[in-house]
Amino acid sequence: MLIAYCLLFIVRPAFAGYVLPYPSYMPGSKLYRVSRIVDQLKKYWYFGNIAQIKYHLGLADKYLVEAKTLMEYKQYLLATDALFRSDKEFLQLPKYVGDAKKEKKDVSAFAALIIEAAEIHAGVLSILASTVPEQFIWTPEKEKPTELNLSVLLRASQELRSRVAREILANVKQ
Predict the structure, then answer these.
(1) Which of 7, 33, 49, 163 could form a disulfide with 100 if both were Cys (CB 3.0 to 4.6 A apart)?
(2) pTM attached to this predicted model
């Protein structure tokens, strides 16, 4: 009995907040294209509104981490593509939360999860905005240069997440 009592106070469960995933395969890896195809195929595995929320939030996280990693390595063109994909996935969330709510499912836990994710994403984007150049001109060989306005893109992504979080919060409170 004494051992059980000691274990109760010594061994406590650890709870972590919302955590972004470890970076997956990156562009240039032989398995990157396979991983993108698998991501698309998973859409059919995750059927139902609740599963779709998890699926799209997971992809939004994955692509944000990809964008962050690529920006850290100054691969801005690839990073903006990953950021656009993350934004696209994050924009899907209100639809599935609304559909689940219409089906009278309790979505309050998922709404809280999405709001927390939006805050974490905004923090990552804010850090990136302070570390990457405001503008970058990508000049590939034998092609036309591409001007990337990174500060505008990062700010737009932050605003998108804030808007989605507000929309979901309003939808859940109705």
Answers:
(1) 49
(2) 0.88
